[in-house]
Structures are given as structure tokens and as C-alpha cells.
Amino acid sequence: MRDYNDFLLEVLVDQESLQKRIAELGAEISRDYAGSKLLLVCILRGGVLFLTDLMRAITIPHAIEFMAVSSYGVGKRKSGGNVRITLDLNIDISEWNVLIVEDIIDSGHTLASVLEMLSIRHPKSLGVCTLLDKAERREVYIPIKYRGFEIPNKFVFGYGLDIDEFYRNLPFIGVVDLKKYNPE
Ligand code: IMP
Ligand code: MG
């Protein structure tokens, strides 16, 4: 994997802006869920960095769980419904107020399936918290309760998001220069 500076077009959200917004989201979530049994469900692997910072910004008691899904079929991004759980939750969520923690919502198909699969388990409530929202790409409606940033239709990486599985560790969100990443 090449040095990311070779294909970094621009820093879209810097470290300071990320942390400031996550602190705001944590405060909001702490107010909204005060006195209730809150479970953060992190969607692996992109949501990991967001989860660990968000949970430190949440001041009320809460539990965490992890879930992983994969899309299959031709045309990954268009496979509405073709989403399979590859790692499931370890607990019965019927007693919990579930808040899904996701890195980015693009077409919305992945999260629509996750919401469907979790809602039939009858959690007390089910909400979505996404760091990034590529709103103009949406193909199915997703009720977003908490949103970090709305972003344009560009391929981004860093802060949990990968480019071919690398660079999830970067503390900022960067835009990939596809001409430099995939030179013709
Ligand atoms: P959706 O089902 O189209 O909403 O796809 C959501 C998933 O696609 C996210 O959870 C990411 O894993 C991936 N994804 C979408 N856009 C990007 C991006 O710009 N960079 C990295 N991953 C992305
Ligand atoms: Mg993801």
C-alpha cells in the first residue's frame, strides 16, 4: 500500500472538527437516553474509531456490542436486501434501547437491512447514529437520529473508513484522488 499522501486529494474533516462534533453528539445522546438502558451497536469495521471516541463522550452508563455484515450478489452497492450477518450480537436486545453506530451511510441498503434484522428482535427502541452521511447517494430512506457530517459524493478514507482495507487508523477524513489512486 502506497503512502496516502500520494492520493490524498484533500482533508475533508480534520481531527479537531471530528472530535468537536463527536463531543456534541455524545452530549446529545447522554441527554436523550438519560435513565434508560442504552446499548451502542457498532457496525464493524468502519464504525470502530467513531465508537471508541463517541463512548468516551457519552456520560451516562451504557453497554456496547458489535455486529458485522457483508453484502453479496453482483453490484455490492445495489444489493438491497442481500446483506448477511457475519458476526451477530451476543445478547438479547429486547430490554435495550439500541443505537446503531455506523461510519457512513451511502446508498442506505446496508443499514436498511440491519434495521430490518434488528427490529424483528423487538428492542425497546432502535436508532441510528452515523458519523458521515452521503445524503445525495441515498436510494432507500434511513431514519437518522444523529449525524456527524453531511458530505458530498466523494470516496473518503480514514477515521475507520478504509481504502482497500488500509488507512482506517488516520485521525481525519480524507478524500481519495481516484486519478492518482487508480492511474490509467
Ligand atoms: P451503503 O449500503 O451503500 O449505504 O454502503 C455503506 C457502506 O459502504 C459503508 O458502511 C462503508 O463500508 C462503505 N462506503 C460507502 N462509501 C464509502 C467511502 O466513501 N469510503 C469508504 N467506504 C465507503
Ligand atoms: Mg461500514
Protein described:
The chain has 184 residues and is of the alpha/beta class. The protein has one domain (15-71, 83-154): Rossmann fold (3-Layer(aba) Sandwich), CATH 3.40.50.2020. The chain contains 4 helices and 9 strands, in the order βαβαβββαββββα. The chain has helices spanning 15-32, 48-57, 109-119, 178-181; strands at 8-13, 38-44, 62-71, 83-87, 97-105, 125-133, 146-150, 156-157, 173-176. It has a 6-stranded mixed sheet. Strands 1-9-8 form a 3-stranded antiparallel sheet. The longest helix has 18 residues, at 15-32. It is globular and about 50 Å long. Magnesium ion (MG) is lined by residues 43, 46, 102-103.
Write the layout of secondary structure elements.
Layout: E1 8-13, H1 15-32, E2 38-44, H2 48-57, E3 62-71, E4 83-87, E5 97-105, H3 109-119, E6 125-133, E7 146-150, E8 156-157, E9 173-176, H4 178-181
Parallel strand pairs: 2-3, 2-5, 5-6, 6-7
Antiparallel strand pairs: 1-9, 3-4, 8-9
Magnesium ion is lined by residues 43, 46, 102-103.
